[in-house]
């Protein structure tokens, strides 16, 4: 058997089919493109659907690929079995109406057995065939497969309902007697059965029938070939690995995890190896998914990533890793996959930041959540139903971030079930509360049927004019009815004109406001809001001040100041969007916006807080474009031409056949239907007000332009002068220096105070350290101190360790409603079985808290200082039980 690396196996497969005239297709993104039926790319053929369904004709009907894929339907089995993976690579060769059985079967045999290629012993190969597929059986016999190595199998027919279908043939490799995990006469001990000896490595699908709606199978006029070979499985054969995890695709990750764990080692114990396997598997999927543009969130693909990160984090705790660690494995994944996926290592810093941010957010609540879950499980076991209530499961989800699946898995390991229906009911209640909290702001729902029937056209002319002298009032809606006239005092009224300069709220830009006049020049209505009606008309919500009649001509006047300020801020969002991409990287995408006259709000995808330096660079870049007086061009064209121009489109936006492209030199080119200035100099000035997070992976910038930016700077200057007076700085320029001076003085005073507190604590600790108790041969120092913090407890523990004062140290301190406990254990006693982490978990309940740590040092926090003395007594009892 050749000894090949995973990179060599992958390349050998692709090279073989390249020699057979195949085009090597690059591995596509895990995020499906133009396929709403898939959450992830889950197979090699998933990227070829456009060819097999006839929507696109490939330049070469022979294709081959190594496609990264994600499947999460068996996520609970990952790590517990030899071959379940969330991310895997599927090697495949495909024929779109070209070759068929008589070509693909000899090629498969050649690749597997030829010394030039895999060089496997033919005697180790077995194949399964569909019983009625005599042609496939004869071809396998012809190439050299022994008759008794051909196994008929009724399930060897690929059929997913209507559409292409056909028989398939699976290829198995006999790994030898050393992998026998079943008795020779066991009914599952055969190629295709549930066993470890016969490993399925390749499946060849002969797509030759069309499964009709009537349930019949008609021959396809153009037969296809679709094959799938799991890279991880094949590599395990070349590297004689018991499972996929002992290959070079996983072992470097496992070795790094060993380094990060609390002395845990991989191998030798299948149950204890599970956390290593889960972590190694999940970090591969997490790394590739984020590299392809997905981000952790509470829905869709983002929820999968979040769930994987949290499962891996919990498994890290099983190995004694209590801090963020997954992000440290990202470069390891990058190096393993570098030969075929160099982009992973190139994006390593970006991916690490996202993973670390998500880990730290989850770790902040994980200990409390796990403690609550353990308590719930313990209480549930007392109940004969052995089921966690939906309310408790939802609390874990809502308060501590535990996905339902994670709670189910954790509870399942303890033999406890979870009430899924109850959980769903609690989720529905929360959604109802959220809907009610949003209020009953008009959304046109009550008038939807009426508006659907209104087909009169309405033209928006606000791009070029803000006043229309004469436009016909086509429709009046009052009290949810079409009327011919309205008078003042009739409540909310909606109007549709044949043309209007009023912009309807859309794409983050707020609606215009303004006035409506009759032909005599009298004001008849005030426009308060404008929305798009279902049939595309601009629907004006107005306050009527004089009679209005259907069919008459009116003058419409937009509030110019309001509109121009909105234009300034809308153009600023385009400049800001591009500046963020330039400064932070191409991964940033617009995730929402609000353009008002007084400020703009811009949401974008990013892995963490934008630094002050980065914000300054963004702000400077936008102002640079403003001061350069760049003309803002608007081009009306079709989508294809717009994309060829380099226009950026929002990922989830839908565009019609005709689009508007807003172009600011070569700096910013975007599809946009909103209003914009004619030249960037009209913005005057751009100033960022704030940068915050609004969700996992989504940040928000609020900013102002023009006079609002000038006013902000004036306010900040006034504030700086006030601070200067307060700190007695001679001039404004000297204010920062004076503030730093005062901060240094405060820091010095705080340091002196802490030093005095430490001295007092040491004096108090002397009495405690002199009181050494002996409990069945274990020396213990235990006591409580006043007016100290957890850092000072740690310092006392260091002093205790230096003095070898006792075998075990237990200290407590509390003030008001806060309590802290610290446990330290000598190395000798750790080896004998007394571990600080176990002891702290046992006694922390007395202070209504929880905690953890290393075997030689652990700490806990709680809200019941009165329980400290009980905790100290419990520590003595705990040691006595152990000895």
Automatic annotation (TrEMBL):
Keywords, sorted A to Z: Aminoacyl-tRNA synthetase, ATP-binding, Coiled coil, Cytoplasm, Ligase, Metal-binding, Nucleotide-binding, Protein biosynthesis, RNA-binding, tRNA-binding, Zinc
Location(s), subcellular: Cytoplasm
Record: residues binding Zn(2+): 570, 574, 672, 676
Top enzyme category: ligase
SUPFAM superfamilies tied to this protein: Class II aaRS and biotin synthetases, Putative anticodon-binding domain of alanyl-tRNA synthetase (AlaRS), ThrRS/AlaRS common domain, Translation proteins
Superkingdom of origin organism: Bacteria
Enzyme Commission number(s): 6.1.1.7
Xref: PROSITE patterns: AA_TRNA_LIGASE_II_ALA
Record CDD domains: AlaRS_core (cd00673)
Cofactor note: Binds 1 zinc ion per subunit.
Function in brief: Catalyzes the attachment of alanine to tRNA(Ala) in a two-step reaction: alanine is first activated by ATP to form Ala-AMP and then transferred to the acceptor end of tRNA(Ala). Also edits incorrectly charged Ser-tRNA(Ala) and Gly-tRNA(Ala) via its editing domain.
Protein name, per record: Alanine--tRNA ligase
Protein source organism: Fructilactobacillus fructivorans
Gene of this entry: alaS
């Amino acid at each position: 058997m050749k000894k090949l690396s995973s990179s060599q196996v992958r390349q050998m497969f692709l090279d073989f089919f390249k020699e057979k005239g195949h085009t090597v297709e690059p591995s596509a993104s895990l995020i499906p493109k133009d396929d709403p039926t898939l959450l992830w790319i889950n197979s090699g053929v998933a990227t070829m659907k456009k060819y097999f369904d006839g929507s696109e004709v490939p330049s070469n009907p022979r294709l081959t690929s190594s496609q990264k894929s994600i499947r999460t339907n068996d996520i609970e089995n990952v790590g517990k079995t030899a071959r379940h993976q969330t991310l895997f690579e599927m090697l495949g060769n495909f024929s779109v109406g070209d070759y068929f059985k008589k070509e693909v079967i000899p090629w498969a045999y050649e690749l597997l057995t030829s010394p030039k290629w895999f060089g496997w012993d033919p005697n180790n190969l077995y194949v399964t065939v569909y019983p009625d597929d005599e042609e496939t059986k004869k071809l396998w016999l012809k190439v050299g497969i022994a008759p008794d190595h051909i196994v008929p199998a009724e399930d060897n027919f690929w059929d997913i309902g209507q559409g292409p279908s056909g028989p398939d043939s699976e290829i198995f490799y006999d790994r030898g007697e050393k992998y026998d995990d079943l008795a020779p006469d066991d009914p599952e001990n055969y190629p295709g059965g549930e066993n470890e000896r016969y490993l399925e490595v390749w499946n060849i699908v002969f797509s030759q029938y069309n499964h009709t709606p009537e349930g019949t199978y008609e021959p396809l006029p153009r037969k296809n070939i679709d094959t799938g070979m799991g890279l991880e499985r094949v590599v395990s054969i070349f590297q004689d690995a018991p499972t996929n995890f002992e290959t070079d695709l996983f072992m470097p990750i496992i070795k790094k995890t060993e380094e990060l764990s609390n002395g845990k080692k991989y191998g030798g114990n299948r149950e204890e190896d599970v956390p290593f396997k889960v972590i190694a598997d999940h970090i591969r999927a997490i790394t590739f998914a984020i590299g392809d543009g997905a981000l952790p969130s509470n829905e869709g693909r983002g929820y999968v990533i979040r769930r994987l990160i949290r499962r891996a984090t919990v498994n890290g705790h099983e190995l004694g890793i209590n801090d963020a660690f997954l992000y440290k494995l990202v470069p390891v994944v990058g190096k393993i996959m570098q030969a075929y996926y160099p982009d992973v290592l190139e994006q390593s810093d970006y991916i690490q930041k996202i993973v670390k941010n998500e880990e730290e957010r989850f770790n902040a609540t994980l200990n409390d959540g796990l403690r609550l879950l353990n308590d719930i499980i313990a209480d549930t076991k007392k109940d004969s139903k052995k089921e966690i209530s939906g309310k408790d499961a939802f609390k874990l989800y809502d308060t501590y971030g535990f996905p339902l699946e994670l709670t189910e898995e954790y509870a399942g390991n303890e033999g406890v079930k979870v009430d899924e229906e109850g959980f769903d009911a609690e989720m529905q209640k929360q959604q109802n509360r959220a809907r009610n909290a949003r209020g009953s702001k008009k959304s046109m729902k009550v008038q939807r049927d009426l508006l659907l029937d209104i087909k009169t056209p309405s033209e928006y002319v606000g791009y070029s004019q803000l006043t229309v002298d004469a436009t016909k009032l086509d429709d009046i809606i009052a009290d949810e009815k079409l009327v011919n006239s309205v008078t003042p005092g009739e409540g909310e009224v909606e109007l549709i004109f044949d043309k209007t300069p009023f912009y309807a709220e859309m794409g983050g830009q707020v609606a215009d406001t303004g006035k409506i006049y009759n032909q005599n020049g009298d004001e008849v209505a005030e426009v308060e809001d404008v929305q798009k009606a279902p049939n595309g008309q601009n629907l004006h919500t107005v306050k009527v001040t004089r009679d209005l009649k259907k069919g008459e001509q009116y003058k419409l006047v937009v509030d110019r100041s309001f509109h121009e300020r909105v234009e300034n801020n809308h153009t600023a969002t385009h400049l800001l969007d591009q500046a963020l991409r330039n400064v932070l990287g191409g991964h940033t995408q617009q995730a929402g916006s609000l353009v008002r006259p007084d400020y703009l709000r811009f949401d974008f995808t990013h892995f963490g807080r934008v630094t002050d330096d980065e914000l300054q660079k963004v702000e400077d870049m936008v102002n640079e474009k403003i001061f350069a007086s760049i003309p803002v061009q608007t081009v009306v064209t079709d989508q294809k031409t717009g994309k060829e121009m380099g226009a950026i489109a929002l990922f989830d936006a839908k565009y019609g056949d005709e689009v508007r492209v807003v172009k600011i030199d070569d700096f910013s080119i975007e599809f946009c239907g909103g209003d914009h200035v004619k030249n960037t100099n009209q913005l005057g000035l751009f100033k960022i007000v704030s940068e915050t997070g609004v969700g996992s992976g989504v940040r928000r910038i609020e900013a102002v332009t023009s006079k609002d930016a000038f006013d902000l700077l004036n306010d900040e200057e006034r504030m700086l002068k006030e601070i200067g007076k307060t700190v007695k700085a001679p001039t404004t320029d000297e204010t920062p220096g004076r503030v730093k001076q005062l901060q240094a003085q405060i820091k010095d005073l705080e340091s002196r105070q802490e030093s005095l507190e430490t001295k007092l604590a040491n004096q108090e600790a002397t009495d405690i350290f002199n009181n050494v108790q002996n409990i069945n041969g274990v020396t213990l120092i235990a006591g409580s101190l006043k007016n100290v913090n957890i850092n000072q407890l740690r310092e006392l523990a260091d002093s205790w360790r230096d003095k070898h004062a006792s075998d075990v140290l237990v200290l407590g301190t509390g003030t008001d409603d806060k309590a802290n406990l610290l446990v330290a254990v000598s190395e000798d006693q750790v080896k004998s079985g007394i571990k600080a982490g176990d002891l702290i978990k046992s006694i922390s309940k007395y202070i209504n808290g929880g905690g953890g740590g290393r075997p030689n040092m652990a700490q806990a926090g709680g809200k019941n200082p009165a329980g400290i003395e009980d905790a100290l007594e419990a520590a003595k009892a705990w040691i006595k039980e152990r000895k």
